[in-house]
Write a structure and sequence with these properties.
Radius of gyration: 23 Å
Structural class: alpha+beta
Shape: globular
Largest sheet: 6 strands, mixed
Number of strands: 11
Low-confidence stretches: 2-34
Length: 455
């Protein structure tokens, strides 16, 4: 299924060219109160419920997100979380396969699902009058999925075709998969969410049901309702449909730690499917438990300063000043349960080599590490993140996405709403200190994609 874009990172990227850059940063109070107004309660069975109100249009969004993802799979079962996500559309005794999707489509709604390394979620957007319908359907498949071999085995072919189309036939995706597998030597973030092909082929009905019964229970889920609804309207409906569900399965998860990285690594991929060369690099950030307060926000600001906009250092140097690249930038994956990562990328102009591009990128990195960041560029980066927060209020689907993503990795609602305040408090010294830690070559894997003429 297509991923439901949950991470605030995507909001930050969307703000990279925002016309609001340069405005003073939002106060914490206005950002919290106006952008994501939300109230939360917990049912007796452990289901956490958040209601975030947006009266702009008479639509409601339901997102049910489980605290389980690809990084929770057993060794040898990569891709199982994603496979189970597909199988949840096979129905229950009350609602057979296809009934849910047909009902949503019949009222002009939207639905889909996603699997990430840390969570799995299912969402629908429907007119407000149809909210009770989707609460009934979604609550039913929390515990009551029914599977037969006739349903399971053909879905394996669907997953394999998805892997072929999205990964195997896309050299950039293959390179990214190899970079991740090299960056993470012990932690399961190194395995692809969609899974390795031989392991996908080994899945059985019993594998799927065991994973489902282990991880799918109300106490391991978060229900986010957003749009034209408030907590007074939502509570009795949620209690009616989700309240009777019994607890089952795991309430917590444990994962291995990544060993200290002591050497820079490199991955090269040559492919006849690659039309243009590409350079990229991934840095392993320390585990979230090892980071100081403000470090994740400093990482987001570092990303914006180094390569998050057309005014960023990498873009100005490699694209505008030296003419070596058609594109260049950076981004972070900070909204994870365990290890954030930091990425650089660039695509050379015709005739420019990857070596020259890498050298130029390294010069910019060294310049930042030696000279630090200026107060002006730090403020501009903060302004762009503020713009992202402003625009977030315009789409009634955004708040459930962001809230569900944050809570699924252990953040509280209060921590999420304090994000603008934390960003505003970051100093240039914090960004510089984090850069010294993260931008260490020994923490990195460099990837090079080379076009290859067919033989």
């Amino acid at each position: 299924m297509t991923q439901f874009p949950l991470a605030r990172r995507r909001l930050l990227q969307a703000a990279a060219l925002s016309p609001l850059a340069g405005l003073p940063f939002l106060s914490a109070r206005s950002a919290s109160a106006e952008i994501f107004p939300a109230e939360s309660f917990t049912l007796e069975n452990g289901l956490q419920v958040v209601v975030t109100t947006n009266r702009r249009v008479p639509l409601v969004t339901q997102l049910l997100i489980y605290r389980v993802g690809a990084a929770d799979e057993q060794p040898g079962k990569s891709g199982l979380a994603h496979f189970v996500e597909h199988l949840l559309f096979k129905g229950t005794e009350r609602h057979p396969a296809g009934a849910y999707s047909a009902a949503v489509a019949a009222v002009g709604g939207q639905e889909n699902a996603f699997t990430s390394a840390d969570s799995t979620g299912y969402w629908q957007v429907v007119p407000k009058r149809n909210l009770e319908m989707i609460l009934d359907f979604e609550s039913d498949r929390v515990l009551n999925l029914t599977l037969t071999n006739e349903q399971v085995l053909p879905e394996l072919e669907v997953i394999l075709e998805e892997r072929r189309s999205r990964v195997d036939n896309r050299p950039a995706a293959l390179l990214g998969e190899s970079i991740a597998a090299t960056l993470f030597r012990n932690h399961p973030y190194g395995q692809p969410i969609i899974g390795w092909e031989p392991e996908i082929r080994s899945f059985t009905r019993e594998d799927a049901l065991d994973f489902y019964e282990t991880w799918y229970g109300p106490q391991n889920a978060i229900l986010v309702l957003g749009g034209d609804i408030d907590v007074e309207e939502a509570r009795p409906l949620v209690e009616r449909y989700y309240g009777p569900l019994a607890r089952r399965g795991h309430d917590s998860r444990e994962r291995p730690r990544e060993p200290v990285s002591r050497t820079a690594r490199q991955v090269d991929l040559s492919s006849p499917l690659a039309q243009v060369p590409r350079w990229s690099r991934a840095y392993l950030v320390p585990h979230r438990s090892e980071l100081a307060p403000g470090d994740l926000e400093a990482l987001q600001l570092l990303s914006m300063i180094l390569g998050g906009a057309s005014s960023s250092r990498l873009y100005r140097s490699l694209v505008l000043d030296q003419g070596l690249a058609t594109s260049a930038g950076s981004y972070d994956r900070s909204e994870v349960l365990d290890y954030p990562t930091f990425y650089l990328y660039a695509q050379p102009v015709p005739g420019a080599g990857l070596e020259a591009l890498e050298t130029a990128a390294d010069v910019e990195i060294m310049r930042l590490l030696s000279d630090g960041v200026t107060e002006t560029e730090l403020q501009k980066a903060k302004d762009r993140l503020a713009a992202a927060a402003i625009f977030a209020r315009d789409d009634p689907k955004t708040a459930p996405r962001v809230i569900g993503s944050a809570l699924s990795i252990g953040e509280s609602l209060a921590e999420l709403q304090a994000w603008p305040e934390r960003v505003a408090a970051v100093t240039s010294a914090q960004v510089e200190a984090l850069a010294q830690t993260v931008l260490d070559p020994r923490r990195s894997v460099t990837g090079r994609l080379h076009p290859e003429m067919p033989s």
